[in-house]
Amino acid sequence: MSALDHYSYWVTIFLLVAGLFIVIARGNFIKKLIGLSIFQTSVYLLYIAPGKLIGGTAPIVGAGFQVYSNPLPHVLILTAIVVGIATLALGLALVVRIREAYGSIEEDEILRAEQSAARDDAT
Amino acid sequence: MIDGTHLPVLQVVVPLLCAPLIVLVRGGRIGWAIATAASVFFLASSLAILLEVQRVGVISYAIGSWPPPWGIEYRIDAANAFMLVLLGLVASVVAPYAWASVRAEIPRDNHYLFYALYCLALAGLGGIAVTGDAFNLFVFLEISSLASYVLIALDRDRRALLAAYQYLILGTIGATFIVIGVGLLYLMTGTLNLADIASRLGDVRQARPVLAALAFLTVGISLKAALFPLHMWLPGAYAHAPSAVSALLAATATKVSVYVLLRFYFSVFGTTAVFAAMPMGDVLLALSIAAMIVASAAAAFQTDLKRLLAYSSVAQIGYITLGVSFATATGLTGGIVHLFNHGVTKGALFMLVGAIAFRLGSSRIDRMAGLARSMPLTCAGIVVGGLGLIGVPGTAGFVSKWYLVLAAIEAGSWVIAFVVVASSLIAVAYVWRFVEVAYFRPPSEETARLKEPPAALLVPAGVLLAASVYFGVEPSLTLGAAYGAAEALLAGPR
């Protein structure tokens, strides 16, 4: 058994780290959300891959089938996908509102606008 | 019909169904009425559940009559019954308060959405507290989180949008960490029922995926609970949210997350696996002490009263997790009772600051000069709440800090006992900032012509404040419930 036998885990870990890195390293609000989606996608894979048995079929009892795959992870991840879409939609809606309010979706520009607004407020 | 068997599920379903109902009728007034009714129902049924739990021990409810561990189980013991009461109490006080507060702070067209989201947040938080299923817990966590992101963004201030966005990013990272932890546990045990996971962990308790699950869950839940140093989303979110939202979230959302941490530590992994085999106790202890000192000090330098209270919340979460880190009956009792006491006190304080902002139009401390002359009641309320944050005898904060100090001495550490007391002195500093400005500065033209906020705002805040004093003078009720909760948790995996 080599390390590559479980390559789905390597893909999972790569997506996980890549997504998290984008969220942290990018200042663009849309790119951050894309990173967040990639990060969430890695979890879908983490759940689904171990549920599949090689040669396994859908868990319907019938003659000639002995090996069944676990259907539960699919159901769970269906729910997680819905949650992920809701989060992404809400995030994008917030970015639209932020752009309307600040005229930008770049984190550093907005923080600069905020700081100068705070200075004006103080004086 | 009214035999109470279905209360655990109704607790969640009633507010959950009220949300679409409010959206359908599209009325601000009727939405308020429905949300208030749902909150009061929540409080009533949580009290009924608490009494039932004290009688029978553990309530197990099989959703759709599918027996656990196959179906989703709602499982309520002394610990989550106590959480439900806190949720119900805060929700049914904040809902009446929202009537006047929301009219002042949120555009008219969005009122019905506010109340619908209020119900959704309540359903989500209640669901987290009652469920005995790991994945169901994640779903409820996301329901409450998504609702709170929108609630925060509803404020007119454009900074609320940024705060909501930041909270969305960090909250989602936290929730995803929790799902990864749950997924690893599922891979190792093949079940999602928390009690079933605990019984099947058995020999694999020290296997690497299980330890990784513990780490992922700890980080994810700590992000949600705003445990220092993962609190970066909290000050902005609480400072820029509408007042009613700040009060609701500050008093409940982070507290429910701490409950989830307790549930995983004590009822799933077990005390020995978490505190003896892994150094989670030391990690929690170090972070708690850092939170108590650093966040309290940061609070003392804030110029905005809401932001000051938010930083103080981060510090108070530290006290709660400090109690948890001892993993003793006294420590846990102190932590859990502080969870309740601080929820009530901080809820009242955010409501009072919202009442000031209602008249003043701002929560900046430097604009509150001489405010005590024009709003004596409100300012007196903030002082009483502030004394509760410091932990002066006669307030609820004293009771919980007393237990924390006792637990520290029991654990043989005078240093920690000293730190608890010393950090309370920093609390004096930040509460004094308000007192100095409001009581000892001459009123400005602006504050001199202000009147006391309307009773619709003061009465609900007063109720919570009175509760925080009552539980300080007569703590047997809360202490009894907290001790029961601590015992139930320390009994270990069921």
What does this 3D model show about the protein?
The complex is a heterodimer of chains A (123) and B (494). With 123 residues, chain A is mostly helical. Chain A has one domain (3-122): Helix Hairpins (Orthogonal Bundle). Chain A has helices spanning 7-25, 29-51, 72-102, 107-122. In chain A, helix 1 (7-25) packs antiparallel against helix 2 and helix 2 runs antiparallel to helix 3. Chain A is elongated, with a radius of gyration of 22 Å. The termini of chain A are far apart. In chain B, helix 4 (111-130) packs parallel to helix 10 and helix 10 packs parallel to helix 13. A two-stranded antiparallel sheet of chain B has the order 1-2. With 494 residues, chain B is mainly α. Chain B has helices spanning 7-25, 28-56, 78-105, 111-130, 134-153, 159-189, 194-201, 208-225, 233-240, 243-269, 271-277, 280-300, 305-326, 329-360, 371-374, 376-390, 396-410, 414-440, 445-448, 455-473, 476-490; strands at 59-62, 73-76. Chain B folds into two domains: 1-278, no CATH class; 279-487, no CATH class. Classes of the chains: A mainly alpha (123), B mainly alpha (494).
Radius of gyration of chain B: 21 Å
Q: Give the ordered list of helices and strands of chain A.
A: HHHH
Count of alpha and pi helical runs of chain A: 4
- Low-pLDDT runs of 5+ residues of chain B are none
Count of the separate structural domains of chain A: 1
Biggest interface, chains and residue tallies = A-B, 30 and 26 residues
User: How many β-strand stretches of chain A?
Assistant: 0
Strand order of the largest sheet of chain B: 1-2
- Anisotropy-based shape of chain B: globular
Structural class given helices, strands, pairing of chain A?
A: mainly alpha
Q: What is the level-2 CATH architecture name of chain A?
A: Orthogonal Bundle
Question: What's the end-to-end separation of chain A, in Å?
Answer: 68 Å
State the total count of DSSP E strands of chain B.
2
Number of domains of chain B: 2
